[in-house]
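TL;DR need structure tokens for one chain.
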Amino acid sequence: MRRTFFCLAAILVGLGFLWGPPKSSGAMPLSPLPPGTVITPTPVSPLIYDSVKVGNLPAGTTYLGYVDGGYANDAAVRAEHPSARILTISTTGASPADILDVEPGDATPQKARRWVASGMGHVIYSDLSDKPLLDAALKGLTWQWYAADPTGCYPHLVPGSVATQYCWTGRYDISETDGSWPAAPPSPTPTIISPLL
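>> reply
TL;DR here they are.
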């Protein structure tokens, strides 16, 4: 073990001599911010979790709650995670929601057209194979796609989607978003209080 460590260290030192010291990026060094500057961090898109069994959901900040159909659990998700952001999903197309679920046994592309046209919502969840059917059914309407692509269970965003469900763990689904959807909930604006003179 010790010999392996020294051999590895010698190799790494040797590579440093071959490549030389790190090259400068040429960027100007950063100067400190003036006193009183308020920095508002850029929001990072949280992961979205969903499951038809609320008890399976892990700790998180954003969840999907089903508002209708055989797996309606929106109220239970809200009760279990009261401080989390809950996005609603309709499986029937009969309810207003943040998302409409289009897959076998749930809403169809034709129901999706009626749902979007009636103003009940505009984000449609479907797998990759249903996307061409949605494109045809929703032609002329403004809508966004929430893709289902759980191949490999690694974080990724399908091109053209605002969100991608990329993993089914056996207990819950995991999705990520493009950072623009859903719009971040309003947060308090940072305020600088000037000292009294």
